[in-house]
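ingest -> fold -> write
write: protein_1
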Amino acid sequence: MAVAPSSSIAAALALIQEDMRAVDEVIAGRLHSGVPLVGQVARYIISAGGKRLRPALLLLMAGALDYRGAQRHTLAAVVEFIHTATLLHDDVVDESTLRRGRATANQSFGNPASVLVGDFLYSRAFQMMVDTGSMRVMQVLADATNVIAEGEVQQLMNTHDATLDEAGYLHVIRSKTAKLFEASARLAAILAGSSSEVEQACADYGQALGTAFQVVDDVLDYDGDAREMGKNLGDDLREGKVTLPLIIAMQRGNALQRQILRNAIETGSTEDLSAVVTIIRETGALEAARQAAAGQAQLAIDAISGLPRNLHTEALLQLAAQLLERRV
């Protein structure tokens, strides 16, 4: 990597600690609803914590571009609301039971409540967008939300498809995951009144970072620690999601190995999870997937190489460089 990871991601995020507190205040204020269950479910999933990378990305990029206006807090909260809505809907679609080390909202409150509160968060996010008075901001977030929804549907269509290739996989994660990273970084440039070239550079950073993040996440589904990750290992396989480690193992494996993988993918059975993990490791698929993530992280670093150097820019560079060390 071009940037040596000399400090932790936590140290990089410490730069925006006060900003994140301001975002939390915005979130708490805008979760209010006259329907008690709405706030109860929304607070349940938001209070679970998580990395908050998307709002953090917006705030770090705003700092790198020397934007200090209050709208950065509003839009960071909007991004978190959109992301939280997708989590609520994802867990229903995937029939997930565990997220961030505790029961999912759908497990605790039921599928109908999770879907409807997800809808509330989407609509509240759009109310907040309107408050900014910027048509450009609304366009970016409306487009991003639409692309995310398309990515979700495409992923559903791809489930249990053992023929999915790397291009198809990347198309889905760039729509479903990386698009909101891209929008978060782009929004900071818009708020700062940056040139179209700088705006595109920020967007490119966000897309590459989001892609790397998802690839690493997919690696950890076969190479992580369930207790540390707060979710069940093998969930992707159970849900029929064909991710990069599986795709590479299918390409590199022998006939018997491919048959074992194909059967696991098509049935969604985790009975052979240990055999699947062994094949993924023996074929070098985990390392190959991590190398693919490293390539995306380098693209992110290269994208913002022309930005002014300050503490926030350095933090963005460190964020990309250290993403590959992630184990949870």
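write: protein_2
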Amino acid sequence: MSPAAPVADVVIAGAGPAGRALARACVALDLRTLLVDPRPHHAWTHTYGSWHHELPDDLPADVVAARGRGVVVARHTHELEDEYVVLDTRALQEHLTDPAVALRRGRAVSAVAAGPGRHPAVVLDDGTAASGRVVVDATGARQALARRGATGGGPRAEQTAFGVVVDREVAARVSGDRLLFMDWRPRHGRPGWPTFLYAVPLDDRRVLLEETSLARRPGLPMPELRTRLRARLRAAGLTDAEIPDDPGAVEKVRFPVDSPRHRSPAGVVAVGAADPLVHPASGFSLATSLRLAPQLAAVIADALHGGAEPAAAARAARRVVRSPAAVTVHALRRRGLETLLAMPPEDVPGFFDRFFTLPPAHRRAYLDARDDVTASVAAMTSLFGRLTPRLRLHLIRGTLLGAHSVRTEQ
């Protein structure tokens, strides 16, 4: 396929938060921008949360639906100093949607690499293509525009969750009217890999109660999570009638936390979960995508306005997303993920007990400092010093051997 002359300066495949944030930042710099998605007007339904200090300063006040200081319950209860923010999904989508961005309906299936006399392009499932001076893969874990090839066998490690939305008064009987970032108490009564309750307000009257498996390879299935959540809520005194089961009040979450590095064709750069920018230990990626979008757009604009070839412009953009420091920090976090996956189930709550005794600066560094190697190493060193001898042994074994021998449990 030989795509025609570019239809835009930047063509972005994927109209989720990462794609829309970058598209908005690009048009603000007068770059002709095309957003390609199979359902470009589809309303987002997932709940997005973040620590307040991670979010960009220009986020409008109405995008914040609720906020509060989180609580972690493991062997002990930890009152967190940092403020946790739950976003209004509809307001976030409206904020990131700029009418100056052109839209095209279509599912991206592959990319045409830039070459001599040829611009990169997004190939759609109807056989057509949309070419640009730079092409961006924002298709999430699907990595639709990556070059195909061996990326390692076996299932991916996934974060999975099953949640229900209930009235605040009902939720208070479970959460004590607290924002529960993690509640590891096994009140669901089920054996096997531990899960926790995530209880966050969606607004003044509604609360999401979600049974969450932070990471597992493969991810815990939805029926198991649903069973655990309902058992946990019944143990707290809720009746079956108070636990919704209709689709409009249910949220299901499943995404990989160890996606392979994007094998980008010439002229293509990946953002968001396609890169991947997902934190291997927490599953967070939204705040990073929002913060990086203006930086990434500025580099692309400078390269294109300076006459750079598509491949060179994409390489400059990739250096923003995957600087040497960011690559190093991500590798350290991936080892942290393997350590968690290799840990005996009964030790996981105790591990998080120790983690949440870290000073706030160290916790922030591990959860947020994506390109600060020194701070990340300091946080991991501090955590190691706080672990019991048994947990230190597991950490060393997980770091050296990975989680390939972990047994699958429910």
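write: annotation protein_2
The chain has three domains: 8-43+90-151+260-322, 158-256, 326-401.
The chain is about 35% helix and 25% strand.
pipeline exit 0
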